[in-house]
Amino acid sequence: MNKGNTNQGRHGVESTSGAHTELSQAEATYRHLAFTELSEDLAFGLNIGFYRTFAIPEIARVLSSTGRMTGQTELRAKTTGLMMYQMFRDGLDSVQGVQTVAALNRIHARWQISNDDFLYVLACFDIAPMRWCDAYAWRRTTAAEKEASHVFYQGLAERMSIREVPPTWGEFAAWMDRYEQRHFTATPEAAELWAATSNILVYRFPAIFSPLIRSAADALLDKPLRKAFSARRPPAAVRALVSGSMRIRAHRIRRAHARPDYVPVLPPSVRELG
Question: Whose CA is closest to 238, among 202, 206, 222, 214?
Fold first, then answer.
């Protein structure tokens, strides 16, 4: 009996060690994407992913009720970005990572949030950035990079007690699509949140687009998201301008990567990480 217990314990240690190694490898891959390989576009995709949460009425009500997303938009965005990138840089089980996860748990504990809504927010950070990069970045993400993202966010889910995460990135993407089809709804809160945050998106574009800022921002949204935000479909000329600028941007970043003196471009708030 003692021998059996010893073997069982050893298998448990091996299993835990294997899971830790998988997470560490995934974190290294994701860290390279976030800070070097796809630094500009992953940041952009994370923003888009966060904005998708506005289309879920329950989430929009929580975000709107705090007043920080509308009254302190830039500060809220900066704080969220710093928290995410601290976990990307240091890992979930680092001292900083543990502190960040604890802070996230404290922040969310004050509201009654369903597991499905937590899952959807997780999907927005796992799925949406990869899809953005595939559509607009200087290169598409690989299957291995998508799975690294998923392993990272599975680890975050475990530490935040978020249950029933689909086992693969592809299955999570399909779950996200079904959830959006069932729950995306136009609400005053969604429109208010989008109006308050859309300007931050456009800061990543040259100043020449400033007069078209609202319409250009709307052009980056898919149809279901525009409908949830009560945003009009931009004129064809604006859509063409934005599409062309994204192609030029991808070409510029691709050429930058080819230079031996390439320096990754990081979000302003991330540059302040100690």
Answer: 214
